[in-house]
Amino acid sequence: MALGRTDIPLARLTEGHVDALRILTEAGAAPDTDALYGVWASRSGGTGLAGRPARDGWSLKGRLLFASGAGVLDRALVTVWPEEDRHLLLDAAVSDWSFDTSAWRTRAMEHSRSHRIELDAVVSARQIGADNYYLTRASFFPGGVGVAAVWTGGAARVLDLLADSWEAPVAVSDPKKVRLGRARTDLASAVALVRQTAVTLRASEVGGAPGPAGEGLPAGHLDSLRTLATLCRAGVGAAVRRILEDVRALAGPAGLAFHENLSRAVDDVALYVGQQSQDGDAVYLGGRG
Predict the structure, then answer these.
(1) Based on the domain organization, do 50 and 167 belong to the same domain?
(2) Are the C-beta atoms of 225 and 214 separated by less than 8 Å?
(3) Looking at the domain assignment, is residue 215 inside a domain?
(4) 72 C-beta neighbours (distance < 10 Å), count
(5) Is 20 helix (H, G, I), strand (E, B) or coil?
(6) What is the pLDDT of residue 172?
(7) What is the pLDDT of residue 281?
(8) Domain end residue (candidates: 95, 110, 128)
(9) Cβ-count burial of 142 within 10 angstroms (0-12 exposed, 13-18 middle, 19+ buried)?
(10) DSSP track, 33-69
(11) SS3 87
(12) What pLDDT was estimated at residue 19?
């Protein structure tokens, strides 16, 4: 959260590095200690990589979107799909992969360098975990809480920059106080939700011990972890969206037009929190007993 309050794209890249190290630890695989990691697992819009073992590595072909840190990362955990219902997780050296910077058409999160990659090559990589490991491991859903922490830090940054943009303190009788108070309440709620969820997950030791995905954990426990993480992401996502709505109203056209840092932070957070599936999370949570 603290890093998100300082630099939202940097916090996003840091979260990806930490998530990759957590995944490797859970699989019992040692990371390259000198490497900057990320996780490239998007299948947005029907994209993704097909892959199979080759003599000198892995033969990969396809289009990868949202490859955050392209041109910056040394290595990435990449999902590849030999078949529609079977995926593998590879630890790949990506520093020399080519990427398309022209596909990103918004300034929002542009500094995260989340570019498009078109691949048809044999690459250096090693498989991590068994088949279907990435999506079935115990920490898959809990890992999303780290993303929610960045959203929360980003929302705090937006409120900080809003205060900086005002030339004079808001008067006690100013109607803006209503929105400002509401936004601060939402931020406090998001912070508390992330912190309490982190405490609960830490106590469960998910992602801390090497072994196959979910080894030794009953199905009911895995379901409870998914519910906990989904509640956190849904609650934080809703709070952050309300904060953005109030900040846009408080800043007005002048604040967004003439204060670049504020405008950029609002755009960054809005795009990043958009990755949360509001309807999907609501359907899942509504179906829990």
Answers:
(1) no
(2) no
(3) yes
(4) 13
(5) helix
(6) 56
(7) 94
(8) 128
(9) buried
(10) TT--EEEE---GGG-EEEEEEETTEEEEEEEEEEETT
(11) strand
(12) 96
Residues 144 and 177 in one domain: yes
pTM to 2 decimal places: 0.92
207 vs 223: CA distance, rounded Å:
15
Question: Does residue 19 form part of some domain?
Answer: no
Which of 46-55, 145-154, 226-235 has the weakest average pLDDT?
A: 46-55
Contacts of 179 (CB under 8 A, 6+ apart): 246, 249, 250
Q: Are residues 40 and 90 in the same domain?
A: yes
Domain-located, residue 20:
no
- Residue type for 255, please? G
pLDDT attached to residue 218: 62
Of 103, 91, 97, the residue nearest 119 (C-alpha): 97
Structure tokens at 6: 């300082």
> What pLDDT does residue 209 have?
40
| Those residues with Cβ within 8 angstroms of residue 32's Cβ, 6 or more apart along the chain or in another chain | 74, 75
Number of domains the chain is built from: 2
- ∠ CA 216-218-222, nearest 5°, is 105
